[in-house]
């Protein structure tokens, strides 16, 4: 996994609550058997009209979004389907962090495994971020767990200590799990079979 | 120390707990389907890993499969490739796979329970958020992403933080025309699409106890729509009766040992929950959604909420604009185009019986297209054995082959832009049933009533 340490970027505001993963990447893009090519489908039905032309009023089609790596979204971002295609699509588009007041559980777990940082901020800071000028930049420092506003104020954000450790070092979770082989084998030895062996 | 069933299952599955790290949790049953697994199998190949417990792993094809005969060969080459990839991966790694052509094929959350694979006290995962369905058996069951699918394939374990416990007590008894679907839609409307984030629900109370297993599955299925990764019901005699004799249920002395274990699972007297809520079943009406989040639900007789009086007027305005609906106006009497009866929420035999009870001797309104899609091959066989297919066909509804179908609209079963559907599925998100389509979520009874009249209808007027 790619490490995440610090990031300074403009912010792309998407002031909608409960953005579900079907919006982030519609189901018709889920027929792939690889992780590639999903950035094109990001927010596809909000981004393009019926003829496939970019809708000029959608934020991702505006100059402000070009090269920006921070998405600012409403409460409960990433709810619904467990599709990891959602963080894959966000990351392939160029986002490296999403800021909201809350995240759906499965999305947050999926994002963390793809170096996409979910940043939870209090409602008043959230509202303030939506009022930023288009060119304004904010900085995220994962080691310090701070998001710094353009006026220099730093806001602390919470993150699971283990997830932080993995992100900072680019640590692969599966490697960590497989490193506990002895514990897994010991558990299996004492585990009562709870289902029959499948044929 | 008194514990909830959630804590009992959790404690029994912690393999290791290092300081400052999430617990390593053992998974008893891993269900796999074609959409969220190919990249996980690729990951295993890339690392030179095998599957640790193919005997605790089972695959089926459901999301992408046609529901119109002939289902084979799959006409859409992209869907065909994904299903073929699943079959090839399962062969290569030794995973049993009930793909198209198997008499056990069906929606992954329908076949797990009906085969007796899902059992009380288990941990169950699948790369699908509606894995919460299996909680109806008193299992801790939750959806995971593809990276986690790879973790479980490789290690049979997951890294997880202990979830918060959330008691959902539903007191009283449902009135006629009101169903399990209405309980869960009412809960989500009350606490919101993120109301259960970080929690596992335990559903309890007289109304839950009196539900049949299939109805409990409907309730648990939509826990995720309130943000809870899992929701469960403590096992009882109804659970044991359902499981007894199923293909993968324990037998003989093994059954007796299992029963003794399962009876220890219910929450201890005096155990504390992190959160609690009480609903009164006697007060519930048939529910329907009007917006683009499952939390946007109302009693079917109520007006659509007015953005001018809403807590979050922007989201409501956006949703109503997409839905082509006006705040303050009733939904009752609004014309609809499509009725979809099926999905992991309401695609089981009991659901089809309910829909058939309304459609029997009636006709689907000529301007409505009604699809009935059984949740599995077994559901299809059982429905046909009791003549439900004949009732649906005689009413003018389409009787289809099993699969996820129009719940996720990956297989060609989809709405046209602007169409309204009354759907027994679980998500009314924008475009969920087809780009530009508009979904009203409701129970099988309500959906069948709407099919007959061609407008949004209170089923109680047809009972």
Describe the structure in your own words:
The complex is a heterodimer of chains A (199) and B (463). Chain A has a seven-stranded mixed β-sheet. Chain A has helices spanning 21-24, 44-47, 85-93, 105-112, 123-130, 161-169, 173-178, 181-190; strands at residues 6-14, 70-73, 97-100, 117-120, 137-141, 146-148, 154-156. Chain A is α/β, with parallel strands linked by helices and 199 residues long. In chain B, 32% of the residues lie in helices and 17% in strands. Chain B contains 16 helices and 19 strands. In chain B, α13 (349-359) packs parallel to α16. The chains are: A alpha/beta (199), B alpha/beta (463).
Kindly list the characteristics that best describe this protein.
heterodimer, A: 199 residues, alpha/beta, 7-stranded mixed sheet, 8 helices, 7 strands, globular, disordered C terminus, B: 463 residues, 5-stranded parallel sheet, 16 helices
On the 0 to 100 scale, the average pLDDT of chain A is: 95
Largest interface: A-B, 58 and 83 residues
Q: Which geometry of chain A do the CA atoms define? A: globular
User: Whole-number average pLDDT of chain B?
Assistant: 97
Number of helices of chain A: 8
Q: Cα-atom Rg of chain B, whole angstroms? A: 21 Å
Number of helices of chain B: 16
Number of strands of chain A: 7
Cα-to-Cα separation, first versus last residue of chain B: 49 Å
Global shape of chain B: globular
Low-confidence blocks of residues of chain A: 194-199
The value of Rg of chain A in angstroms is 19 Å
In which order are the strands of the major sheet of chain A placed? 4-3-2-1-5-6-7
Chain oligomer state: heterodimer
Strand content of chain A: 15-25%
């Amino acid at each position: 996994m790619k490490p995440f340490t610090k990031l300074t970027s403009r912010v792309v505001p998407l002031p909608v609550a409960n953005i579900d993963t079907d919006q982030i990447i519609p189901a018709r893009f889920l027929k792939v058997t690889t992780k590639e090519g999903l950035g094109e489908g990001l927010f596809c039905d909000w981004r393009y009209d019926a003829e496939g032309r970019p809708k000029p009023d959608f934020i991702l089609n505006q100059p402000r979004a070009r090269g920006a790596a921070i998405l600012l979204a409403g409460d409960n971002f990433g709810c619904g389907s467990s599709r990891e295609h959602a963080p894959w699509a966000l990351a392939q588009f160029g986002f490296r962090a999403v800021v909201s007041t809350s995240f759906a559980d499965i999305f947050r777990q999926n994002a963390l495994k793809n170096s996409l940082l979910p940043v939870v901020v209090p409602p008043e800071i959230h509202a303030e971020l939506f009022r930023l000028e288009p060119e304004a930049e904010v900085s995220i420092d994962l080691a310090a767990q701070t998001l710094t506003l353009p006026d220099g104020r730093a806001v602390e954000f919470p993150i699971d200590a283990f997830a932080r450790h993995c992100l900072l070092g680019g640590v692969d979770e599966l490697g960590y799990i497989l490193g506990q082989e002895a514990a897994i084998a010991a558990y299996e030895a004492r585990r009562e079979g709870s289902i029959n062996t499948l044929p | 120390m008194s514990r909830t069933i959630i804590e009992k299952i959790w404690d029994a599955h912690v393999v290791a707990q290092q300081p400052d790290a999430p617990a390593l949790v053992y998974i008893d049953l891993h269900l796999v389907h074609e959409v969220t697994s190919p990249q996980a199998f690729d990951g295993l190949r890339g690392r030179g890993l095998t599957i640790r417990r193919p005997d605790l792993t089972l695959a089926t094809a459901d999301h992408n499969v046609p529901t119109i005969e002939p289902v084979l060969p799959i006409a859409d080459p992209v869907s065909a490739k994904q299903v073929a990839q699943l079959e090839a991966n399962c062969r290569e790694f030794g995973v049993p796979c009930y793909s198209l052509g198997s008499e056990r094929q069906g929606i992954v959350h329908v076949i797990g329970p009906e085969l007796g694979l899902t059992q009380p006290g288990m941990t169950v995962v699948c790369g699908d958020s509606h894995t919460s369905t299996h909680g109806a058996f008193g299992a801790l069951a939750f959806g995971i992403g593809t990276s986690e699918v790879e973790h479980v394939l490789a290690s049979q374990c997951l890294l997880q933080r202990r979830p918060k416990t959330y008691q959902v007590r539903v007191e009283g008894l449902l009135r006629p025309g009101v169903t399990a679907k209405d309980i869960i839609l009412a809960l989500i409307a009350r606490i919101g699409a993120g109301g259960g984030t970080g929690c596992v629900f335990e559903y309890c109370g007289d109304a839950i106890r009196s539900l049949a297993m299939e109805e409990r599955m409907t309730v648990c299925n939509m826990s995720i729509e309130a943000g809870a990764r899992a929701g469960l019901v403590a096992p009882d005699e109804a659970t044991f009766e359902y499981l007894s004799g199923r293909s993968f249920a324990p037998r003989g002395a093994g059954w007796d040992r299992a029963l003794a274990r399962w009876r220890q699972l219910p929450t201890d007297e005096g155990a504390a929950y992190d959160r609690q809520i009480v609903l009164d079943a006697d007060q519930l009406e048939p529910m329907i959604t009007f917006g683009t989040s499952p939390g946007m639900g109302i009693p079917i007789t109520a007006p659509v909420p007015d953005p001018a009086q809403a807590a979050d007027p922007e989201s409501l305005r956006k949703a109503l604009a997409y839905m082509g609906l006006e705040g303050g106006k009733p939904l009752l009497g609004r014309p609809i185009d499509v009725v979809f009866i099926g999905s992991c929420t309401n695609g089981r035999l009991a659901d089809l019986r309910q829909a058939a009870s309304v459609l029997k001797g009636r006709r689907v309104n000529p301007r409505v297209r009604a699809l009935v899609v059984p949740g599995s091959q077994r559901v299809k066989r059982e429905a046909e054995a009791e003549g439900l297919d004949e009732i649906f066909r005689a009413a003018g509804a389409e009787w289809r082959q099993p699969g996820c179908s129009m719940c996720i609209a990956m297989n060609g079963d989809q709405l046209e832009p602007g169409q309204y559907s009354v759907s027994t599925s679980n998500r009314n998100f924008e475009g969920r049933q087809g780009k530009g389509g508009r979904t009203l979520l409701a129970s099988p009874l309500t959906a069948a009533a709407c099919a007959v009249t061609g407008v949004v209808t209170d089923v109680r007027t047809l009972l």
